C-alpha cells in the first residue's frame, strides 16, 4: 500500500491519501475522508471512476475482455457447471463437489419454487397486458410482506434461506407473470424436473382437461434447450457494480428488507440501456429489415447528427469483445448446427452488422464491440421465449448475483448508508 499526494494550487496545501492494492486491476485511492480532510469533494457523474464498495464476487477487465466469478473465468464455469451450481457458488462461495451435491441444491430450489397462495392472488390486480417486469418488481416487493423475518437477518443461515427462497421462486414468478399477461392458466411447479426444465415447463405447459396431470403443448422441452438456457443464465449471474446491482446495494444500505432492495434492482434492470437492451436489439434488427440495408444503418450510427444508435455494441466497461458475447456467438452457432434453428432473417442481419462494424475503423477506434445483448435476443427467440420475457429472464440470471451482493453488503460491519454529494449549480 502506498500513498498519493493531492496539492491544492489555491492554498498551497498538500494532502496524502492511501492507495489500496486490489487483488486484480488498478490501485484505488481511498478518498473516504476527502471532504473531512480537505473541505472539497470529488465530482464523478455516473461514478465511472468511483468504487462504492469492496467485493469478492465478480471481476471485470474491460481492456482484456475478461469476466471472472470469484476468480474463475466465465468461460470455464459455462463449460462445466449448471446455473443452479453457479447460484450455490455465488451465495455460499462453494461449487458443488460432486453430482450429488449439485442435485441436492437443485432439488432444494425446486421445492422452494411454489408460491404463497396470497401472492398468487395478487396477479388478479394487474391488467392482462401489463409488462412482466412491472409485475415482477411489484410481486418481489410483496414477498417482503410474506417473509418479514428477513428484515433483521442475523446469521449465515438467515442469509442463505433468504437467497435460496427467492432464487427458487423467481422462475415460477417469471412464468406466472407472462401467463397472466396473456390470460393463460398457471402451471404449478413440478419437482421431478430440473430447475431450468421446470421453468420452461411452467412457461409452455397446458392443463389437460381430462387428465389429473399437466402435459406439454405440441413441442416438448429438449435437453439442448435446457443446456442453452443454463448457459445464458450463467452469463448473466453477476457483473460487478452495474446500475441494478448498485441500486440493490444502495437501497439495502438503508436497512430495508432484502426483497424490497431486490425489487428496486428489478426496476433498474428494466431500462432499455441496461437489461432491456436485448429487446431493443431485436427490434432494431427488425427495423434494419434486410442484409442489404446494413451499410445504411451503420452510416447512420456514425453520423453525429443522427440520433440513431446501434444497439448491442459498446459497453461502459468493456473496450474489447465482451466475453459473454463470445460465448453466446458460439452457442448460437452450436444450436443452429444441432437442430435449434435461429431465425435466419434476424441471424443473417446480425451477422452482417457485426461483420461490417468490426471491420470499420470508427467502431474499432472507439472500442465498440458486440456486447452480451447482441446475440442473446436471437437465441432466446430460437428457444421460443417471448420477447417481453427477455428482461425477466435476465432477472432470473442476475438473482444469485444480487443475493450475493446483498449478503456481502449486510455482513460488512463498516457498510454505511449510501449518501453521495452533489455539485449544486442553482440559485
From TrEMBL:
Q: Name one GO biological process term.
A: tricarboxylic acid cycle
Q: In which pathway does it act?
A: Carbohydrate metabolism; tricarboxylic acid cycle; isocitrate from oxaloacetate: step 1/2
The reaction(s) annotated as catalysed by this protein in its Swiss-Prot or TrEMBL entry are: oxaloacetate + acetyl-CoA + H2O = citrate + CoA + H(+)
Which keywords, in A-to-Z order, does the entry hold? Transferase, Tricarboxylic acid cycle
Q: Which GO terms describe its molecular function?
A: citrate synthase activity
Which segments does the entry list as coiled coil? none
What residues form the catalytic site here?
A: 315, 373
One matching Pfam family, short form? Answer: Citrate_synt
Q: Which family does it belong to?
A: Belongs to the citrate synthase family.
Q: What is this protein called?
A: Citrate synthase
| Species name | Helicobacter anseris
Amino acid at each position: 500500500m502506498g500513498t498519493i499526494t493531492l496539492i491544492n494550487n489555491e492554498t498551497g496545501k498538500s494532502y496524502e491519501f492511501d492507495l489500496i492494492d486490489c487483488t486484480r486491476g488498478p490501485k484505488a485511492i481511498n478518498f473516504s475522508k476527502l471532504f473531512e480532510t480537505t473541505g472539497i469533494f470529488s465530482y464523478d457523474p455516473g461514478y465511472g471512476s468511483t468504487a462504492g464498495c469492496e467485493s469478492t464476487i465478480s471481476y471485470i477487465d474491460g481492456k482484456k475482455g475478461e469476466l471472472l466469478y470469484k476468480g474463475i473465468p466465465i468461460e470455464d464455469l459455462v463449460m462445466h457447471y449448471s446455473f443452479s451450481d453457479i447460484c450455490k457458488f455465488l451465495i455460499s462461495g462453494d461449487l458443488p463437489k460432486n453430482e450429488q451435491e449439485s442435485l441436492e441444491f437443485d432439488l432444494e430450489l425446486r421445492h422452494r419454487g411454489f408460491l404463497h397462495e396470497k401472492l398468487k392472488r395478487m396477479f388478479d390486480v394487474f391488467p392482462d397486458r401489463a409488462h412482466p417486469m412491472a409485475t415482477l418488481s411489484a410481486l418481489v416487493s410483496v414477498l417482503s410482506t410474506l417473509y418479514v423475518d428477513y428484515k433483521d437477518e442475523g446469521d449465515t443461515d438467515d442469509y442463505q434461506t433468504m437467497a435460496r427462497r427467492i432464487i427458487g421462486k423467481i422462475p415460477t414468478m417469471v412464468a406466472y407473470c407472462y401467463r397472466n399477461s396473456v390470460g393463460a392458466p398457471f402451471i404449478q411447479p413440478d419437482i421431478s424436473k430440473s430447475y431450468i426444465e421446470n421453468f420452461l415447463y411452467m412457461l409452455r405447459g397446458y392443463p389437460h382437461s381430462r387428465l389429473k396431470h399437466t402435459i406439454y403443448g405440441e413441442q416438448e422441452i429438449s435437453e439442448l434447450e435446457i443446456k442453452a438456457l443454463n448457459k445464458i443464465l450463467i452469463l448473466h449471474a453477476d457483473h460487478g457494480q452495474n446500475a441494478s446491482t448498485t441500486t440493490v446495494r444502495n437501497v439495502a444500505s438503508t436497512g430495508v428488507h432484502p426483497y424490497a432492495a431486490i425489487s428496486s434492482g428489478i426496476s433498474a434492470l428494466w431500462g432499455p440501456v441496461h437489461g432491456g437492451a436485448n429487446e431493443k436489439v431485436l427490434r432494431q434488427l427488425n427495423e434494419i429489415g434486410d442484409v442489404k440495408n446494413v451499410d445504411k444503418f451503420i452510416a447512420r450510427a456514425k453520423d453525429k447528427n443522427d440520433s440513431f444508435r446501434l444497439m448491442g455494441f459498446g459497453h461502459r466497461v468493456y473496450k474489447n469483445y465482451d466475453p459473454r458475447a463470445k460465448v453466446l456467438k458460439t452457442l448460437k452457432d452450436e444450436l443452429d448446427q444441432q437442430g435449434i434453428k435461429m431465425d435466419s432473417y434476424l441471424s443473417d442481419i446480425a451477422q452482417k452488422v457485426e461483420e461490417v462494424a468490426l471491420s470499420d475503423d470508427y467502431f474499432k477506434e472507439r472500442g465498440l464491440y458486440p456486447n452480451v445483448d447482441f446475440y442473446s435476443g436471437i437465441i432466446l427467440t430460437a428457444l421460443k421465449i417471448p420477447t417481453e420475457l427477455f428482461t425477466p429472464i435476465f432477472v432470473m440470471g442476475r438473482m444469485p448475483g444480487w443475493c450475493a451482493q446483498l449478503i456481502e453488503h449486510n455482513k460488512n460491519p463498516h457498510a454505511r448508508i449510501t449518501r453521495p454529494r452533489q455539485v449544486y449549480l442553482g440559485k
